[in-house]
Each structure stands twice: as C-alpha cells, then as structure tokens.
Amino acid sequence: MNHSLQDPGSCGIHEDGKLYIVDSINDLNKLNVCPAGSQHLFSLEEKTPGLGTHSGNGSQSLFFLGLLIALIVSLAMVFFVIFLIIQTGNKMEDVSRRLAAEGRDIDELKKINSLIVKRLNQLDSEQN
Q1: pLDDT tens-digit readout, 18-32
Q2: Mean pLDDT (whole number) for 44-62
Q3: DSSP for 54-111?
C-alpha cells in the first residue's frame, strides 16, 4: 500500500541509489578479496574509461580539428563575399558608364531630331 502512495518518479531515484550502493559494495569486495600486497584503490580514471586524461586528448584534437575546419570554411566564405562585392562594384561602374554614354547619345539624337524637324518645317513653309 505504501508503494501506491509514492509518485512514479521516486522509483528512478531509489534505483539510482541502489546502483550506487551495489557499486560501493563491489569495490569493498574487491578490496577484501585482493591479497594485502596487491591492494590498491581504484581511481576515477580507471573506473570510467573515456574520462581519463589520455582519452580526452583525442576528443580535444577532434574538437580543434573541427574548429580549424570551421574557421577555414568561414574564411573562404568571407573571401568569396568580398570577391562578390568587388565584382558587383565593377559591374555597377560599367553600367553607370554605359548609361552616361547612352544619355549623351540620346541628347545628341534629340538635337539631331529637332534640327531635322526645323529643316522639314522650313521646307514646308517654302513650298507653301
């Protein structure tokens, strides 16, 4: 009846506590079973592979390799963006030069058109 009153999340906490107690009991049994000359305390690095000092170097080197690759890729992207900005600036200068030249051409064509219209008007007035 006591189990039905407890919340379901407390079972996981009790199980973790039981595992810790079992692990501690196993460590004590290892110390009692080993002869006195060969007894030694197990350090945390020996119990948990992958958290030791030597195994961390591999993950650190992978981290730095990934960081180096990310930096190289970002640097390449920055250079590419700078290249695109320069190219766009050059294209804009070309377009503005062409527009200025075409604007001059259009002004010249307007002048020529007005001269032709004047000349045609003069010819019409002479014929009448």
Answers
A1: 666 777 777 777 776
A2: 60
A3: HHHHHHHHHHHHHHHHHHHHHHHHHHHHHHHHHHHHHHHHHHHHHHHHHHHHHHHHHH
Torsion 117-121-127-128 (CA) sign: positive
The answer to whether the predicted template modeling score (pTM) of the entire model surpasses 0.70 is no
Per-residue pLDDT, 15: 65
Say which amino acid occupies 88. T
Pick 42 or 114 by higher pLDDT. Answer: 114
SS3 2: helix
> Which two three-digit tokens encode residue 69?
């690759």
DSSP 6: S
Candidates 85, 37, 21, 88; CA nearest to 29 is: 21
Strand extents, DSSP E, the chain: none
Residue at 84: amino acid letter: L
CA distance 32 to 36: 9
